[in-house]
Design brief:
Blueprint (H helix, E strand, L loop, with lengths): L11 H14 L3 H8 L5 H7 L10 H8 L4 H19 L12 H4 L16 E2 L5 E2 L48 H10 L8 H9 L4 H8 L7 H15 L3 H4 L5 H6 L7 H11 L28 E2 L40 E2 L21 H10 L10 E2 L2 E2 L31 H11 L11
Antiparallel strand pairs: 1-2, 3-4, 5-6
This protein binds heme C (2 copies).
């Protein structure tokens, strides 16, 4: 199955907010021109910053009109919310312990993934509790469509008749669709920020930005804790859609696609192996080519897929031999509980900025890209390198009960048997890693 490239699938309201954000913060002439011409969505603005894709409908004008606001007012409100969202993101006083901010687990210098190499981060009121998952990057989430069990390409560049299977949603299991709903999870989780809506509201009221908060959300906002909490979620969601910060498309690979940089021989070989359907076949899930309308690739099709990542025995939840993190079928996600076909599947992450991460896969089991790429190449040819061996027998797929093995992906590079040649040899693994290193934002051409 070759999955169709997933694109913007957010609700109309989210799309408009994203668009307004993208336009407020657009700096390049092409992006601004796209806003003025009425770009259909934030992706189009980002794409326009890199191409001259034509745009048609004036969504900003429509959004502003519907809200009874002028375009300037919409822009101003997005600007205020973005500034507040940023302050909230770095504010540890929002947590029960007073020690944990969003930025503690999502460090801006590390592509908004953790600064340390722990598989799972410490949190809770005593700062000693852990969850079961690695903290992902927060970059390039603007392109994640809402979760769908059967995803069909929604715009004119894909084949709508193709069912790409379960796709989209935020978090590793796709259980929420919007940044605001997502932010509620860490703020209230007992093993993360461990607060309550009232606790968060009290912290905001006492914060140096309380005045700015009232200016953005109205004089009466602090009269209700629930309203204050909702406003916090909205501001965080708006901040997460700041194009320059969260989806700048400034990697070496972007410069290469734009004809402004050359890849080294190793990087080029890595790209080739990444794309080759018989070798890495990585691009079948981690899309590496521009879309037909010229938008830069997201390095994910956002599909939920089971690849049989080994059990991370260092996690405290895994001390219980009967416990399994089954992704979309639970236990964190509850709406697909008991639906066997959703067990063991996790959302394909973007690989942009992946070289800034220090723990990989949903359970953070690996700590170098070399280990990750070797897992892809040798999972089926040398399973003893990745799974425990008990009495001479490899316990393959030890983190997924056997009744769900039918869900496991078997496309290349996962199409081999023990003893066969791995899809990538040692030198090729190094080349793929070299290519992955070109996906880090902030590339500056050496002159
Ligand atoms: C203790 C560490 C920790 C803190 C603090 C934290 N997060 Fe996260 N974040 C995570 C983990 C772990 C996940 C993955 C959760 C899952 O899959 O169930 C995640 C996932 C996310 C995602 C979804 C990413 C994706 O790929 O879909 C977003 C967005 C996010 N966090 C935003 C925030 C915001 C906003 C805050 C502050 C209100 C925050 N996080 C605080 C650890 C943390
Ligand atoms: C069939 C779809 C598919 C293919 C093919 C695929 N991946 Fe992935 N990739 C995923 C999924 C799904 C995950 C998350 C799995 C998990 O954590 O359970 C992932 C995770 C990763 C991660 C970890 C990212 C992070 O933030 O933790 C890296 C690195 C990666 N893939 C690189 C590659 C490379 C390199 C190739 C080719 C050799 C490749 N992938 C092929 C679907 C795929």
């Amino acid at each position: 199955m070759v999955r169709a490239a997933a694109r913007q699938g957010a609700t109309t309201a989210t799309k408009r907010m994203r668009l307004a954000t993208a336009c407020v913060l657009a700096t390049t002439a092409m992006a601004l021109a796209a806003c003025d011409a009425g770009a259909p969505d934030a992706g189009a603005v980002a794409a326009a910053a890199h191409s001259s894709a034509p745009v048609a409908v004036s969504a900003v004008q429509v959004a502003a009109h519907e809200a009874g606001q002028s375009r300037a007012q919409v822009y101003e409100s997005v600007r205020q919310m973005t500034a507040l969202g940023k302050q909230l993101f770095f504010d540890a006083s929002l947590s029960g312990s007073g020690k944990l901010a969003c930025a503690s687990c999502h460090s801006p210098e590390h592509g908004f993934s953790p600064a340390n190499a722990l598989s799972v981060q410490l949190g809770g009121n005593d700062m000693h509790r852990t969850g079961m998952r690695a903290a992902p990057t927060l970059k390039y989430l603007q392109a994640v469509p809402a979760f769908a069990e059967h995803y069909h390409e929604s715009d004119d560049e894909g084949d709508e008749s193709v069912d790409a299977g379960p796709t989209g949603g935020l978090t590793w299991d796709g259980r929420v669709d919007r940044g605001g709903e997502q932010a509620r999870i860490p703020l209230l989780s007992p093993f993360e920020m461990g607060s309550t809506p009232a606790g968060v509201a009290a912290a905001v009221k006492a914060a140096p930005y309380a005045g700015a908060f009232r200016a953005a959300f109205g004089e009466h906002i602090f009269e209700s804790d629930d309203a204050t909490f909702s406003a916090v979620l909205q501001a965080l969601e708006t901040f997460e859609q700041t194009p320059e910060v969260f989806y700048p498309y400034t990697s070496k690979y972007d410069a290469y696609l734009a004809g402004k940089a050359q890849l080294t021989q190793a990087e080029l070989r890595g790209l080739q192996l990444f794309n080759d359907e018989k070798k890495g076949n990585c691009a079948s899930c981690h899309i590496s080519q521009r879309t037909m309308d010229g938008a830069p690739p997201q390095f994910s099709d956002f599909g939920l897929i089971a690849i049989g990542v080994p059990r991370n025995r260092a996690l405290s939840v895994n001390r219980d031999p009967h416990f399994y993190d089954l992704g979309a079928c639970g236990p964190e996600r509850t709406d697909l509980k008991g639906r066997a076909e959703f067990c063991g599947i996790f959302r394909t992450p973007t690989l942009r900025n992946v070289a800034l991460k220090k723990s990989f896969f949903h359970n953070g089991i690996y700590h170098s890209l070399d280990q990750v790429v070797r897992f892809y190449a040798e999972r089926d040819t040398n399973p003893d390198k990745f799974y425990p061996v008990v009495k001479g027998k490899v316990q393959k797929f030890d983190d997924l009960p056997q009744r769900y093995w039918a869900n496991l992906n078997t496309e290349p590079p996962f199409d081999r048997k023990p003893g066969e040649k791995p899809a990538l040899d040692e030198a090729e693994i190094k080349d793929v890693v070299a290519f992955l290193n070109t996906l880090t934002d902030g590339y500056k051409a050496a002159n």
